[in-house]
């Protein structure tokens, strides 16, 4: 297979950080090439060099056999390089059709946009991906999975010669994942080169031909994926011996937690919102990790948001350490000692233009202030403590948080809420979109927090993570609790059976 895009001896440096060091990689026509590595290994920087966001400090980028210098993303797009990002990178308030054809709208008489034709073309295009939505509706009215499929449809409908997929399945249902893989195979058959970035090993072995492993900004392996077993791949990513990976496994949860005896620190009773939640009730004790299981749309995230008052409910009570919250609101939840790490860190979490320091201390400002003034020394103590404890990799606390890898951004968010010393921590997909190394660190931290007596609610689409990380699992379906697993019943087989519940939710 002939190459279409190459990075040859490319290096990229940021203040205090050598992000890429003499990296070479070749993307061939008709090949799916996996790019893997821990968060901070250099994957995002490599993608941004190839797509014109950054320019290399050394080395050469070659495209279609000749050296190129993309000075902006539009240059790369015009050359035939399309990118699908983990966080949907479209315009949420514009219509679905406008997002699909942005910059290439069909024109009619006098050069005006032919909306009727655009809507018809958009509906026909999306139907190829099994998406049946109102193309006139704002993109933000769709769920995350449907938005991701719209981004996919846009990326592959522009006659791309190279398609870069950055964690493309992170928000997709299994049916949508199957559709994505069908599209990938079709593109491969058409001679398109695909760079596939994912932390999900099952996906890599299902769809990818070759793999390049990055570690600390360097290429440590390139070759056919079929020649690497999973343990060897993980050991290359982590820089650890295969025997060590086999001994510890792919998660860092301990075999069990010892929940403190006594009264629950969190009591949730009868949370109800029409068509969303139906009488959700459960308890969490100090030192206990309680999982919320269920398919996407089952009410897991909605339950977490209702507990902290971010989703209004028609009825229901939340009690923390014996005190009922009189009013469910985010401010009341924080005062009571409840912190929520949201699923969508880009839209609901990090503030990209602020520094690591500012993002960490944001929620703690009222507690750190004296007469409205917050000393830099107090900030430094808090930031230094949590950057060390969570092993946040950054050039300095003053580096923009948007420049960090996804895993380190997730740790910054965790630090923000942990510095409030919460009694209850709600974690919604805490390891979504991060690599196995950062994932293991976050899992180890959850374990440590539970051992210290924190009450933890863990929401995860990863069955293995939920089973290994939770003491009990409350299973939701259609916004209602349909089962609760504890003790020996906390297993993948029991959880899958409970998740497959097809009964009607109670009124």
TrEMBL record:
<dbReference type="InterPro" id="IPR003593">
    <property type="entry name" value="AAA+_ATPase"/>
</dbReference>
<dbReference type="InterPro" id="IPR003439">
    <property type="entry name" value="ABC_transporter-like_ATP-bd"/>
</dbReference>
<dbReference type="Pfam" id="PF00005">
    <property type="entry name" value="ABC_tran"/>
</dbReference>
<keyword id="KW-0472">Membrane</keyword>
<dbReference type="InterPro" id="IPR027417">
    <property type="entry name" value="P-loop_NTPase"/>
</dbReference>
<dbReference type="GO" id="GO:0005524">
    <property type="term" value="F:ATP binding"/>
</dbReference>
<keyword id="KW-1278">Translocase</keyword>
<keyword id="KW-0813">Transport</keyword>
<feature type="domain" description="ABC transporter">
    <location>
        <begin position="245"/>
        <end position="503"/>
    </location>
</feature>
<keyword id="KW-0067">ATP-binding</keyword>
<feature type="domain" description="ABC transporter">
    <location>
        <begin position="5"/>
        <end position="241"/>
    </location>
</feature>
<dbReference type="InterPro" id="IPR017871">
    <property type="entry name" value="ABC_transporter-like_CS"/>
</dbReference>
<keyword id="KW-1003">Cell membrane</keyword>
<dbReference type="GO" id="GO:0005886">
    <property type="term" value="C:plasma membrane"/>
</dbReference>
<dbReference type="GO" id="GO:0016887">
    <property type="term" value="F:ATP hydrolysis activity"/>
</dbReference>
<dbReference type="InterPro" id="IPR050107">
    <property type="entry name" value="ABC_carbohydrate_import_ATPase"/>
</dbReference>
<keyword id="KW-0547">Nucleotide-binding</keyword>
<protein>
    <submittedName>
        <fullName>Sugar ABC transporter ATP-binding protein</fullName>
    </submittedName>
</protein>
<keyword id="KW-0677">Repeat</keyword>
């Amino acid at each position: 297979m002939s190459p279409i895009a190459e990075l040859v001896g490319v290096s990229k440096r940021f203040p205090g950080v050598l992000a890429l060091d003499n990296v070479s990689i070749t993307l061939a026509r008709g090949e799916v090439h996996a790019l893997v590595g821990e968060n901070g290994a250099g994957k995002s920087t490599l993608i941004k060099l190839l797509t014109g966001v950054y320019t290399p400090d050394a080395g050469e980028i070659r495209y279609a056999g000749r050296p190129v210098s993309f000075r902006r993303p539009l240059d790369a797009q015009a050359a035939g390089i399309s990118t699908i990002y983990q966080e949907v990178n479209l315009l949420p308030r514009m219509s679905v059709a406008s997002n699909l054809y942005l910059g290439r709208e069909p024109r009619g008489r006098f050069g005006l946009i032919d909306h009727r034709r655009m809507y018809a073309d958009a509906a026909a295009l999306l139907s190829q991906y099994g998406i049946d939505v109102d193309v006139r509706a704002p993109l933000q009215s769709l769920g995350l999975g449907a938005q991701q499929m719209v981004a996919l449809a846009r990326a592959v409908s522009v006659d791309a010669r190279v398609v870069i997929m950055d964690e493309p399945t992170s928000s997709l249902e299994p049916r949508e994942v199957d559709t994505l893989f069908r599209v990938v195979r079709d593109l491969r058959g058409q001679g398109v080169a695909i760079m596939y970035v994912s932390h999900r090993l099952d996906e890599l072995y299902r769809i990818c031909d070759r793999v390049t492993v990055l570690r600390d900004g360097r290429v440590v392996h390139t070759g056919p994926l079929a020649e690497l077993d999973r343990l060897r791949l993980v050991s290359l990513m982590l820089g650890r011996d295969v025997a060590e990976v086999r001994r510890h496994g792919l998660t860092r949860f301990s075999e069990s937690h010892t929940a403190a005896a006594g009264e629950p620190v969190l009591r949730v009773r009868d949370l109800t919102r029409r068509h969303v939640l139906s009488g959700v009730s459960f308890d969490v004790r100090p030192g206990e990790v309680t999982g919320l299981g269920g398919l996407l749309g089952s009410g897991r995230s909605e339950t977490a948001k209702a507990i902290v008052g971010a989703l209004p409910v028609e009825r229901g009570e939340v009690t923390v350490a014996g005190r009922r919250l009189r009013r469910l609101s985010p401010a009341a939840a924080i005062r009571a000692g409840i912190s929520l790490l949201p699923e969508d860190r880009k839209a609901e979490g990090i503030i990209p233009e602020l520094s690591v320091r500012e993002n960490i201390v944001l929620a703690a400002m009222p507690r750190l202030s004296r007469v409205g003034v917050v000393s830099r020394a107090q900030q430094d103590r808090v930031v230094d403590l949590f950057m060390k404890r969570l092993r946040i990799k950054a050039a300095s606390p003053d580096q923009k948080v948007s420049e960090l890898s996804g895993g380190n951004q997730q740790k910054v968010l965790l630090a923000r809420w942990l510095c409030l010393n919460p009694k209850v921590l709600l974690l919604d997909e805490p390891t979504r979109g991060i690599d196995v190394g950062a994932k293991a660190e976050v899992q180890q931290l959850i374990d440590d927090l539970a051992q210290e007596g924190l009450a933890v609610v863990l929401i995860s689409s990863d069955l293995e993570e939920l089973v290994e990380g939770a003491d009990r699992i409350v299973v939701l379906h259609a916004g209602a609790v349909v089962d609760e697993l504890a003790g020996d019943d906390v297993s993948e087989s029991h959880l899958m059976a409970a998740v497959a519940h097809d009964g009607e939710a109670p009124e």
